[in-house]
Amino acid sequence: MELLVASAIGIMTAGGLYLVLRLRTFPVILGMSLLTYAVNVFLFASGRLTIGAPPILRDGVEIYTDPLPQALVLTAIVISFGMTAVVVMISLGAFLGSDDDHVDDLLEEEVTSAEGTP
Amino acid sequence: MTHWIIAPIILPALLAPFIVLAARYHIGIQRVFSVVGVLALVAISASLASQVSDGSVLLYQLGDWAAPFGIVVVGDRLSTMMVLLTCVLALFVLLYAIGSGWDNRGRHFHALFQFQLMGILGAFLTGDLFNLFVFFEVLLIASYGLMIHAGGNARLKAGVQYVLFNLIGSTLFLFALGSIYAETGTLNMADLAERVQLIGPEETVGIRVAAVLLLLVFAIKAALVPLHFWLPSSYAEAPAPVAALFAIMTKVGAYSIIRVYTMIFPPDLEVTSGLHDLWLLPAALVSLAIGMIGVLAAKKLDRLVAFSIIGSMGMVLTSIALFTPEGIAAALYYIVHSTLAGATLFLISDLVRTGRDNLDLTPQPPVKGTAITAGLFFAGAIAMAGLPPLSGFLGKLLVLDASYGTDLMVWIWFVVLVSSLISILGFARAGSVIFWKAHSVEGPEDTEHLTTPTTMSYCAVGGLLALLAAHTVFAGQVHGYTTTMAGQLFAPDTYVATVTQTPGKLSKPTKEDH
């Protein structure tokens, strides 16, 4: 269980970072989503992994899981979902406006050579 | 328990949807509500600041839940001063946006402006790390909208970079919060201050990772080199009033560093030793140098101002990284100065843009309204470069004085003095190219589309400069106050006790699972 969750977080983070470094908006946004998945699972695991236990604290319940990380993850999911929607809209606007989906600023000679080729 | 402490968050949070829903098509009504709201915020924050000036700590428990379980809003000297600074800055920026017509060049400026204020003020007032994250996101998502206000390809492109960089920062923030929660079982700042001390020396791996990650996140916000790459193009491309408001956003990062690394990870804590002097201080000195070299190298006026913001953040962080009461007091004095000076310069660059086709630093025909604009630029540049008589000079002296006798004193003095010289050269070059060489150039005659900035724009910029002058004249009092503020930061017992011991629901001692 621990190995599974830990390796899932690791693989998603690695994949996300690789995609973020591609410097074109579509892979970068995909990479950002992978990173947010990774961080959500990480937050979830920060309250220790307990299987089949309710997130309730009350008398008589001996085994329970920490409810706070679940609330944190919920907030984080909502925020990252909204942010992804915003970044998709803004990058779509930027792409449609300039017909170029590079994230970084091109050097001046690259701009002129890109304009030269049809 | 006073309820007023929550008002700086609630008021803009209510005004913004009202402006969107009820006054959607009426720019006049939007302007009235926005200005009245900001005026009320200034009044509230001034009264809050005077309430805590005796060293007391204001606490508001949301839903009356006691501290480690519920969410708290806390006001001490530092946070109320930052709130007051934000509100005053917002007032002048708003007046400029209205006077120059920027708010009418796209939609929903005023609603986004209020949401932005809500995020910034919330970040200053919250007493909980997770809520700091939430308010960071609120201020960021509003800033995304403001940043691309009025559209344009260059602006959208810079906006994409800005959004992506900050999204990565937010992800890092969540990783840091997860590690902190896994190690301590709490995210309340006052509770963390107590629990981090209890971690045994052999179990510090997780908390050290978390401390470094948090510092990285705040350094991204504060535009510390090498994490500053988002700042120059986004500040330069953003509409000028928005860029002026953003001058406070880098200070949110500086504020968070001060708050977290004096209270949760204080400088004498063994876990995080070496973080300030080994990493933060050299990086801050490099940002100071790179920012001021950027001022000299910039080809456009708005980029020049953006780099001067990086440089002044380098100065602030140099002073913070000393982590002595004198250093923090000097940094707080400089934070006020650098916010006002940065905002003034961004607004002045827009005054220049109003009377000129572009902001390129090449000789072109005179700017419309040259006389006043040039005078304002002269004063703003003096303030930012740190020449007497304005407050930049005093702030710099305080930083130099605070670093006197430390191990890295030679380096700090060298970098601060040389970079000041470079920035003076940079500003002098920019001013002479734009305002003096203009008269030697024959230009095209079709300048009808260029206008003189309105009186209200000039009033807003003049108001900010008057504040800078007041910051200079009352430097003694202000520095005295920041010194008491630093004293409060380095003795956080009152803060911690107020937060953890104020009774509320669930405050009966229960057996905790950690």
UniProtKB/TrEMBL annotation, chain A:
Name of the molecule in the record: Na+/H+ antiporter subunit C
One of the Pfam families matching this protein, by short name: Oxidored_q2
Keywords: Cell membrane, Membrane, Transmembrane, Transmembrane helix
Signal peptide region: none
Cellular component annotations (GO), alphabetically ordered: plasma membrane
Major subcellular site: membrane
Protein's UniProt keywords contain Heme: no
Residues that span the membrane, as ranges: 6-21, 28-51, 71-96
UniProt cross-references to InterPro entries, sorted A to Z: CPA3_antiporter_subunitC, NUOK/Mnh_C1-like
Family, similarity comment: Belongs to the CPA3 antiporters (TC 2.A.63) subunit C family.
Protein's organism: Sulfitobacter aestuariivivens
Location of the protein in the cell: Cell membrane
Membrane topology: Multi-pass membrane protein
Residue ranges that the Swiss-Prot or TrEMBL entry lists as coiled coil: none
Automatic annotation (TrEMBL), chain B:
UniProt keyword terms in alphabetical order: Cell membrane, Membrane, Transmembrane, Transmembrane helix
Gene Ontology terms for molecular function: NADH dehydrogenase (ubiquinone) activity
Membrane-topology annotation of the record: Multi-pass membrane protein
Transmembrane segments: 32-50, 81-102, 109-126, 132-150, 162-182, 205-231, 238-258, 278-297, 304-324, 330-348, 369-388, 408-428
Gene Ontology cellular component terms for the protein in this record: plasma membrane
Subcellular location: Cell membrane; Membrane
The keyword Cell membrane appears for this protein: yes
Biological role: NDH-1 shuttles electrons from NADH, via FMN and iron-sulfur (Fe-S) centers, to quinones in the respiratory chain. The immediate electron acceptor for the enzyme in this species is believed to be ubiquinone. Couples the redox reaction to proton translocation (for every two electrons transferred, four hydrogen ions are translocated across the cytoplasmic membrane), and thus conserves the redox energy in a proton gradient.
Record-given protein name: Monovalent cation/H+ antiporter subunit D
